[in-house]
Each structure stands twice: as C-alpha cells, then as structure tokens.
Amino acid sequence: MNILALRYGDDIIVVDAGMMFPEDELLGVDIVTPDLTYLVENRDCVRGLIVTHGHEDHIGAVPFFLAELNVPVYGTAFTLALVSRRLEEHDLPEVKLRTVKPRQVVELGPFKIEFIHVTHSIVSAVSLAITTPLGVVIHTGDFKVDPTPTDNELFDLHTFAEYGKRGVLLLLSDSTNSDRPGHTGSERAVRPRLEEVFSQADGRVIISCFSSSIHRIQQVIDLAREYGRKVALLGRSMIQVTEIAHSLGLLEIPDGILMRPQDIQSTNKRKTAVLVSGTQGEPMSALSRVAVDNHKSLSIDPGDTVALSSRIIPGNERGIFRMVDHLERRGADVMYGSMNPPLHVSGHASAEELRLMLNLVRPRYFMPIHGEYRQLAKHARLAEHLRHVGLEEIFILDAGDTLELDHHGARKAGRVTVGRICIDSGSVDDVVEDLVIRDRKHLSEDGIVLPIIAINKHTGRSETLPEIVTRGFAAAEDGSELLQAARQVVARTLENSSTEEMTDWGVMKEKVRSDLKRFIAKQTSRRPLIMPVILEV
Ligand SMILES: [Zn+2]
Ligand SMILES: [Zn+2]
C-alpha cells in the first residue's frame, strides 16, 4: 500500500500512505489501508508525511493516517487538493497541508527533502531526494520518462544527474513495469486512437478514464473542440477532479465547451462528447449506471461510441465485461483493452527508462520498490551492471522488513508490524459520517446481517419477501420488528430496480447493501457487516 518510513535517531518521516480496493473475498469491505502500529508506537518521532502524487494507492490512507498522527503533509498543489477532497469525507481536527513546488527543499529534523518533478499518468508528480546525515536517499515515487507530456512539464532528468554526480547512498525506484522491455509510450500516444474515435463516430463520443488522468482528459477536450463537440462530465469524481485541475491551471478548458449533464439528451448526438468515470465497472459508478440505463443524464442510443481509456485491472475483468455487455446490448460500439494504436498507455517506466534512472543516479545501494516480487526481482537484475561503477548491494524487501544503514554499510534488519486494515466506509454515493473499522472487534460488536434474496429464474424478479439472517447482531432478535422492517427495505430496493439491473448481481448486491446499511445505521446506530446473498430459484 505504498507507505515507507525513514528514520534517523528519533526522527521519522513517512513517504506516501496508500490504500487498495479489496479483492473479492473481502466481501462488504470498501477499502483496505495499512496498519500504522509502528508509527503510532513511535508517534513522538514522526515529523511529517510526504506524498509523491495523487493516486489513491499513494494518498488513499492519508485521512486514516492523520486521524492517528496529526503531522504536516507535504506535496504539490494538485496532490494536496486531491488529499483535501478525501479529507472532506472525514471529520478531522485541523490538518496541516504544506504545498511545495519542484526544486523546493523542506527540512524536517535531520532530513532535507528536495522535490523533483517527474512525469507519470497523473500531473504534478514528484520524486524525493532526501539528504540525511549519512548520505542522499532518492525515492522516485511512480514515474515514466514521458518526452511529450500534455502539460509540457518535462521530466527533470538534470536534477537526478546532479545528485548522481555528487553521490547517492540509496535509490528506491518504481518497479511496476520492470518486466516490460523498451520504453513506455508518452501520454500523447493515445491521441491517434482517440482522434479516430472522434473522426468516425456517428453518435455520441463517450470516453471513460480515471478522473485523475488529467493528460487524458485534456486530449479529449482538445479533440472535442477540434471536432465541434461539446463536453459533458459525468460522475462525481470526474467533475470534482477536473474542477481542481482547472482551478490550478493544469487543465485548459476553452470557454463554452462544457455542457451541463442535463442537456445531453436534448443535444445533437454528433455534437456531444461525454467524459465519464467508472472504467473499472465499479457497480455504483456513473458508467455502470449508464450501462444499465439507470443514469439520469445519459441514455445510450445505437450508434454511440464508448471508449474505455484505461487498463483492465486484473480482478476487475468480470465487472468490466459485464458493463461492456450492457453497453453493447444498447447498441453502443465499445472499445476497450489493448489495441494498436493504443487507447491507453501505462504511467510506469519500462526497462529502458528504469536503466536510465539507475545510470543517472548510480547509487551505492539499490532497493526496487512498487510492484510484485517478480517485478522487484527483474528490476534488481536491471541494476546488476552498476556493480562496476560503485553499486555495492541490492536489497529486495518484503512489507514490514527494515533496511539499516550506517557508517559501516547497509543490511536488512528486524521487522516491524505491518498488515492491512479493512474499512467499511459507507457506500460510494453516501456521505460518510462515521468511519468504522471492520475488523474482528467490529464484527464481534455489530455482528453480521445476511439478506437472502430469491430471484425467479423465469421472470428475473424476486417474488417473495427477502429473508434476513443475522449472527451476533444484538440489536435485532429473529422475528423482531426491526428485522421485519429491514425485509421491507430490501423488498423496496428490489422493486425499484429495473429488470436489467436485476440481472446484474454485482449492482444488486451493492444497492441492497447500501440501502440496508443506511436503514440499520439510522435505526440502531450499528454498522453490522452486510453481505447480500442472491439465489436463483
Ligand atoms: Zn501512480
Ligand atoms: Zn502507484
């Protein structure tokens, strides 16, 4: 989950605090964040949190981090704006956000941290050069070397080279794509494919990408202008993040190009482009709702083109393909996955770029970070040739391992507590009032609630009142009034769902879960784990 602590004596700084979305087996959990036990036990030593860029896997746990450790947070303006957006959902006392610019140096205890501009799939990403009493530690964060970024902010190779010349003790570098040969494409590499979509579409052009992909959004807006289409933004994150980027001067939006979502249906389809969030088929996202014709602003018509400008993240295939099926059923031409020219490019450096970084920095010690073990191992192999120019050792660490450096050298040292904390934070479109950690303690206090829904396989509808089974949910005895009312809540959710939604069990489970959760929280102030079960009878 991308969190790293650097300690010198009694001073600790922390780099990034990410989260991840749960795998399928963690039913009912919204997000997973890192266990902060080590930092909490050493709270008097923690001087600050530094965030390299605004991706969820680097900032998603910041609110949880600050709830435990209220230290200043350092990052670029855009990154901190995305942090603030996350913080709004949490009720935290005053938070100290400190905006930095590339080339700026911040001193925290014995650490002097210089921020170095790098290119990545998100704008305003930085690497860190951290000068310590023992030498310089460089942490690249996520990067690729994009020679033509859409914001024209070039990768600051020069500063890395300067540090390399003066001598670097330890390099920590992004390994995500170390198993890909060659160079990763520029963000501009998607333009030919997007241009083809714009030049050939007969109906609406609907493009979905991550809301943080400002490079991608800029190119869609530019093409829309060139092809005489207005742009509507759909999805809360798409609207908020473009607004943030625009207000910081990172996204150019020509006057008059935006249209309101409520005007989509009444506007000429050939004059309409839509940027929508939800590329991963997340059940409650805007695009998933459009796919089952349950979005108030957009109904797909035959002839519309939908392009998913993102990677299909492993584990999400089922949700994505189900969504694509729904869109195709409504007559949309859906483009997704890898194609040539590409609809999507990675944000991470391939082997040649990683080699360039290693050659510029020429560290004494090297530690590949970010990626699975195989990618760390491949990255380690890429660094072998540096042994002729001063590289002494390469360390591959597991989560929880520590690396110790002193005047004698570097070595793996003891382990610290790590792990994952599962958080059930209210449904996606719900305001989170009270964050609840759903670990064993939570389960033992609030129990578990299983709504059991029987769907008739001929009619596709639920024809009997849903059953609800509970375990350890003290607020309701079997047959109690509360449970009877809860059954009605579930029944209403089912009644208010379209036949098409009813075929999509992922969507149905999420709807039932969020409605029932809201009801139970209101009635009992409890937040049991709710796991809907759907059976075909
Ligand atoms: Zn990233
Ligand atoms: Zn990352």
Q: Determine the fraction of residues in helical runs and give it as a percent range.
A: 25-40%
Described by the principal axes of the CA atoms, the overall outline is globular
CA distance, first residue to last residue: 41 Å
| Average pLDDT taken over every residue | 91
* Residue runs with pLDDT of under 50 for 5 or more positions: 426-438
The small-molecule ligands in this entry are:
zinc ion
Structural class per helix/strand content? alpha/beta
Extended strand count: 26
Largest beta-sheet details: 7 strands, mixed
Query: What is the strand content?
Result: 15-25%
Description of the molecule:
This protein is α/β, with parallel strands linked by helices and 537 residues long. 30% of the residues lie in helices and 23% in strands. It has a 7-stranded mixed beta sheet with strand order 7-8-9-10-11-17-18. The protein has a 5-stranded mixed beta sheet with strand order 1-2-4-5-6. Helix 8 links the parallel strand 13 and strand 14. The radius of gyration is 25 Å and the shape is globular. About 2% of the residues have low confidence. One zinc ion (ZN) binds next to helix 2.
